[in-house]
């Protein structure tokens, strides 16, 4: 019986100990030169290929590595560099690449200290926009188009990395984001032609794809992988036409090389026939997210193509259930034959942590249930072996035993939690009185001025704060010393807020490593890894906690810090929590029950925290739901169901408090238009949102909807190192004041300040308070 081939779509690039992050940040600080960074990249690529080879993967990817982002690499490959970066049209340098991602203080684009977001329109080389890659927590750089955009082959990275693999004896499979996905993910930014249809650019873009593909073929590439995850979205007729035109041309350009087109993250639905009809040699399908559609896929699968089935979840950390995967694979093998079936992971492994090998502290029982990227490689190879009949039956037995242990573990199931979720009623999600009544009571209790000023929660997570935490984790700092250090940071932060005249202070979140991980660490039903980092954007990583079982809160999580903070000031301190939907969306979550159930369990745990804070005398509580919007399913038809349980979860969390307790929520990086009804349904007393970068445009949704509750539209773009002036912020508040009743308007930044430095935050907040004061005075003078 013939051997079944194995491959992956991509491998994490950050390194087991985030080597790439560390080297990149040193380069940005000017502490190592470019060749040193290049050589770290080269070593990592080699190490990653060797690991894949050692695991027995037949076809390894190349060009899945990136110093920042694979879409940004494509921007550079196509010479799609926005004019403001002063690119000379030659080979795009690493320096220009980083300038696109991070902004450049001047057109020389040196490694300036800048953010991952955009640098505001005031500076010449402001960064390109960054946004979420489908429904993941990975962010890509948004390609920018104009009506006169031209494309031209402008980097050699994809060829260099192919040759690098060749030199190591590997015939690697180069990976490239596909033309339709590339155009779909980009944005037209052309003030002279704002309505330009970006798909008009296809004819100019395809010749570069043809050139790249032909060149790779000439250099000996057997397979080329083209990623088209937009197949998992609702596609327009225009996009469908683009697919037909693109692949007719690319198939011709391929010559001796064979093309594999990959879709992932969701079902194909009415794109199925289009996908199956592409004139390419192989198609990759996500059988995890698309399991329900596998029958339809197999029934219609063309006789001349290879099918790569992604049965291992690239987006989660659970050990694969071999029996379940084999059932799918056997079915495919019966239809297609072993020669036309490849085994893979559902998506690139970019979205899973690197390796379980260095996890020494992870609870042994739970570690046995997990598989990170390296373990997933072994799973792919093992499944292919079992399917070929030459497999490791001991591995299958071991897998069955592990699945059984997980299923039956007492650690997972807590009857009291299940009963509590079952007993949730509509009353749990309802405040005693309607907003208008609460607003009166809260006004009286809180005694805030017009246009009250506040911030979103975090203050700078300085190197000093992180170093203290690192020392404490290594036991180089005692609990008492760490506690004293944090108290001092918190006290200084609050006193400073009082001093500059912030009306509603926050404690600063110095004790938190991350707004989700911090809560995960304190909830029962969660475990957390030491090194389970996943790239979020550029060099920034997150370590999502692992939600494995029914959720309880053994003891209050934030009451101590918030009470301490309140004791420092007479002003109303805003207690700070992360909401259930955001905790869910930024965690690795169980795959043995619906997300909605896990979310409600989280909601009940955070509700208890809310009520404890209230009992401790905290009068204002913010419940962050930064990730509410990004949890939206990729297909519109599934939105309502998600929004229903997400909003209900928030309401359960927030709405058990008395009328006089003011509930805030916060959302950033959100387009609000299509979910404004759901946001209003949350019924928070105050919502703070990110609006400064869009010049208050994001507020329109609230205005059109006649959003009834109070709003703090952000006036300070915290993604930029630029310090906003009093006048800039005044004009933003005025703009908001023209459409929002003055009594409902708050003044605050776009988001938390944790990624900024004090030298930026101090003057910016002083200006913000001044802007609010001026408007207040003007408003009082007018009556
Ligand atoms: N979970 C989550 N998802 C999110 C966001 C978010 O805030 N959280 N925001 C958006 C993405 N934005 C992000 C913004 C910042 C960072 C970020 O700053 N990440 C840090 C890690 C944050 C962290 O957990 N740090 C830990 C560990 C710090 C660390 O690595 N320490 C060093 C030692 C440090 C020293 O000695 O100074 C080490 O252990 O090696 C801590 O503070 O405790 C980083 O990559 O640098 C990530 C995402 C969307 N998704
Ligand atoms: Zn935010």
UniProtKB/TrEMBL annotation:
<keyword id="KW-0489">Methyltransferase</keyword>
<comment type="pathway">
    <text>Amino-acid biosynthesis; L-methionine biosynthesis via de novo pathway; L-methionine from L-homocysteine (MetE route): step 1/1.</text>
</comment>
<dbReference type="InterPro" id="IPR038071">
    <property type="entry name" value="UROD/MetE-like_sf"/>
</dbReference>
<dbReference type="Pfam" id="PF08267">
    <property type="entry name" value="Meth_synt_1"/>
</dbReference>
<feature type="binding site">
    <location>
        <position position="668"/>
    </location>
    <ligand>
        <name>Zn(2+)</name>
    </ligand>
</feature>
<keyword id="KW-0028">Amino-acid biosynthesis</keyword>
<feature type="domain" description="Cobalamin-independent methionine synthase MetE C-terminal/archaeal">
    <location>
        <begin position="451"/>
        <end position="773"/>
    </location>
</feature>
<comment type="similarity">
    <text>Belongs to the vitamin-B12 independent methionine synthase family.</text>
</comment>
<feature type="binding site">
    <location>
        <position position="509"/>
    </location>
    <ligand>
        <name>L-homocysteine</name>
    </ligand>
</feature>
<feature type="active site" description="Proton donor">
    <location>
        <position position="719"/>
    </location>
</feature>
<dbReference type="InterPro" id="IPR006276">
    <property type="entry name" value="Cobalamin-indep_Met_synthase"/>
</dbReference>
<feature type="binding site">
    <location>
        <position position="666"/>
    </location>
    <ligand>
        <name>Zn(2+)</name>
    </ligand>
</feature>
<feature type="binding site">
    <location>
        <position position="132"/>
    </location>
    <ligand>
        <name>5-methyltetrahydropteroyltri-L-glutamate</name>
    </ligand>
</feature>
<feature type="binding site">
    <location>
        <position position="751"/>
    </location>
    <ligand>
        <name>Zn(2+)</name>
    </ligand>
</feature>
<feature type="binding site">
    <location>
        <begin position="540"/>
        <end position="541"/>
    </location>
    <ligand>
        <name>5-methyltetrahydropteroyltri-L-glutamate</name>
    </ligand>
</feature>
<feature type="binding site">
    <location>
        <begin position="456"/>
        <end position="458"/>
    </location>
    <ligand>
        <name>L-homocysteine</name>
    </ligand>
</feature>
<dbReference type="InterPro" id="IPR013215">
    <property type="entry name" value="Cbl-indep_Met_Synth_N"/>
</dbReference>
<feature type="binding site">
    <location>
        <position position="624"/>
    </location>
    <ligand>
        <name>L-homocysteine</name>
    </ligand>
</feature>
<feature type="binding site">
    <location>
        <begin position="18"/>
        <end position="21"/>
    </location>
    <ligand>
        <name>5-methyltetrahydropteroyltri-L-glutamate</name>
    </ligand>
</feature>
<dbReference type="Pfam" id="PF01717">
    <property type="entry name" value="Meth_synt_2"/>
</dbReference>
<keyword id="KW-0677">Repeat</keyword>
<protein>
    <recommendedName>
        <fullName>5-methyltetrahydropteroyltriglutamate--homocysteine methyltransferase</fullName>
        <ecNumber>2.1.1.14</ecNumber>
    </recommendedName>
</protein>
<dbReference type="GO" id="GO:0032259">
    <property type="term" value="P:methylation"/>
</dbReference>
<feature type="binding site">
    <location>
        <position position="690"/>
    </location>
    <ligand>
        <name>Zn(2+)</name>
    </ligand>
</feature>
<feature type="binding site">
    <location>
        <begin position="456"/>
        <end position="458"/>
    </location>
    <ligand>
        <name>L-methionine</name>
    </ligand>
</feature>
<dbReference type="InterPro" id="IPR002629">
    <property type="entry name" value="Met_Synth_C/arc"/>
</dbReference>
<feature type="binding site">
    <location>
        <position position="586"/>
    </location>
    <ligand>
        <name>5-methyltetrahydropteroyltri-L-glutamate</name>
    </ligand>
</feature>
<keyword id="KW-0808">Transferase</keyword>
<keyword id="KW-0486">Methionine biosynthesis</keyword>
<feature type="binding site">
    <location>
        <position position="630"/>
    </location>
    <ligand>
        <name>5-methyltetrahydropteroyltri-L-glutamate</name>
    </ligand>
</feature>
<feature type="binding site">
    <location>
        <position position="624"/>
    </location>
    <ligand>
        <name>L-methionine</name>
    </ligand>
</feature>
<keyword id="KW-0862">Zinc</keyword>
<keyword id="KW-0479">Metal-binding</keyword>
<dbReference type="GO" id="GO:0003871">
    <property type="term" value="F:5-methyltetrahydropteroyltriglutamate-homocysteine S-methyltransferase activity"/>
</dbReference>
<feature type="domain" description="Cobalamin-independent methionine synthase MetE N-terminal">
    <location>
        <begin position="6"/>
        <end position="335"/>
    </location>
</feature>
<comment type="function">
    <text>Catalyzes the transfer of a methyl group from 5-methyltetrahydrofolate to homocysteine resulting in methionine formation.</text>
</comment>
<feature type="binding site">
    <location>
        <position position="509"/>
    </location>
    <ligand>
        <name>L-methionine</name>
    </ligand>
</feature>
């Amino acid at each position: 019986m013939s051997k079944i081939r194995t491959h992956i779509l991509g491998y994490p690039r950050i390194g087991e100990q985030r080597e790439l992050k560390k080297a990149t940040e040193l380069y940005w600080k000017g502490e190592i030169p470019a060749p040193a960074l290049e050589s770290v990249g080269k070593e990592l690529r080699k190490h990653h290929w060797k690991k894949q080879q050692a695991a027995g993967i037949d076809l390894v990817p190349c060009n899945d590595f990136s110093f920042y982002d694979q879409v940004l690499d494509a921007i550079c490959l196509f010479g799609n560099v926005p004019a403001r970066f002063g690119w000379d049209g030659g080979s795009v340098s690493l320096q220009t690449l980083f300038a696109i991602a991070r902004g450049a203080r001047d057109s020389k684009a040196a490694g300036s200290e800048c953010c991952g977001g955009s640098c505001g329109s005031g500076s010449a080389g402001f960064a390109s926009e960054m946004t979420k890659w489908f429904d993941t927590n990975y962010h890509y750089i948004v390609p920018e188009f104009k009506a006169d955009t031209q494309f031209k082959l402008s980097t050699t990275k994809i060829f260099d990395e192919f040759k690098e693999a060749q030199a190591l004896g590997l015939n690697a499979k180069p990976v490239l984001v596909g033309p339709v996905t590339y155009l779909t993910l980009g944005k037209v930014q052309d003030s002279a032609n704002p309505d330009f249809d970006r798909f008009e650019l296809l004819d100019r873009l395809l010749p570069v794809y043809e050139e790249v593909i032909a060149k790779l073929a000439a250099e000996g590439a057997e397979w080329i992988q083209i990623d088209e995850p937009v197949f998992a979205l609702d596609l327009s007729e225009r996009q469908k036409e683009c697919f037909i035109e693109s692949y007719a041309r690319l198939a011709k350009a391929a010559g001796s090389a064979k093309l594999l087109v990959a879709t992932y993250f969701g079902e194909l639905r009415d794109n199925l026939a289009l996908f199956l009809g592409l004139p390419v040699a192989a198609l990759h399908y996500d059988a995890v997210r698309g399991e329900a559609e596998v029958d339809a896929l197999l029934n219609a699968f063309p006789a001349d193509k290879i099918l790569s089935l992604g049965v291992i979840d690239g987006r989660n950390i659970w050990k694969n259930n071999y029996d379940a995967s084999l059932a799918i694979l056997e079915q495919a093998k019966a239809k297609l034959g072993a020669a036309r079936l490849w085994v893979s992971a559902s998506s690139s492994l970019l979205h899973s942590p690197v390796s379980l090998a260095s996890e020494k502290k992870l609870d042994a029982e739970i570690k046995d249930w997990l598989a990170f990227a390296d373990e997933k490689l072994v799973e792919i190879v093992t499944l292919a072996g079992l399917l070929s009949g030459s497999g490791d039956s001991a591995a299958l037995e071991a897998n069955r035993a592990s699945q059984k242990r997980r299923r039956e573990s007492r650690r997972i199931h807590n009857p009291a939690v299940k009963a509590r979720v079952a007993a949730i009623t509509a009353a749990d999600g309802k405040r005693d009185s309607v907003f208008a009544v609460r607003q009166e009571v809260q006004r009286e209790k809180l005694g805030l001025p017009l246009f009250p000023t506040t911030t979103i929660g975090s203050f700078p997570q300085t190197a000093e704060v992180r170093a203290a935490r690192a020392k404490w984790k290594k036991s180089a700092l005692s609990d008492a010393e760490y506690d004293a250090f944090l108290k001092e940071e918190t006290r200084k932060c609050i006193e400073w807020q009082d001093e500059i005249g912030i009306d509603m202070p926050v404690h600063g979140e110095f004790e938190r490593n991350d707004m989700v991980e911090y809560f995960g660490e304190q909830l029962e039903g969660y475990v957390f890894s030491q090194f389970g980092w996943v790239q979020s954007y550029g060099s920034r990583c997150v370590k999502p906690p692992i939600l494995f079982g029914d959720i309880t809160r053994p003891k209050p999580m934030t009451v101590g810090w918030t009470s301490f903070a309140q004791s420092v000031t007479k002003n109303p301190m805003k207690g700070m929590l992360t909401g259930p939907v955001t905790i869910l969306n930024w965690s690795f979550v169980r795959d043995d029950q619906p997300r909605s159930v896990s979310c409600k369990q989280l909601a009940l745990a955070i509700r208890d925290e809310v009520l404890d804070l209230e009992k401790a005398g905290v009068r204002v509580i913010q419940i962050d739901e930064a990730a509410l919007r990004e949890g939206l399913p990729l297909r519109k038809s599934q939105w309502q169901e998600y929004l229903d349980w997400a909003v209900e979860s928030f309401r359960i969390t927030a709405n058990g408090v008395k009328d006089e307790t003011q509930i805030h929520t916060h959302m950033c990086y959100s387009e609000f238009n299509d979910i404004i009804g759901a946001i209003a349904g949350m019924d928070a007393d105050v919502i703070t949102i990110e609006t400064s970068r869009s010049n208050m445009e994001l507020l329109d949704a609230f205005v059109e909807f006649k959003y009834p509750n109070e709003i703090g539209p952000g006036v300070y773009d915290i993604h930029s190192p630029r310090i906003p002036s009093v006048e800039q912020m005044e004009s933003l508040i005025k703009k908001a004041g023209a459409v929002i009743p003055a009594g409902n308007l708050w003044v605050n930044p776009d988001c938390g300040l944790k990624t900024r430095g004090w030298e930026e935050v101090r003057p910016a907040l002083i200006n913000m308070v001044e802007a609010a004061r001026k408007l207040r005075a003007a408003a009082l003078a007018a009556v």
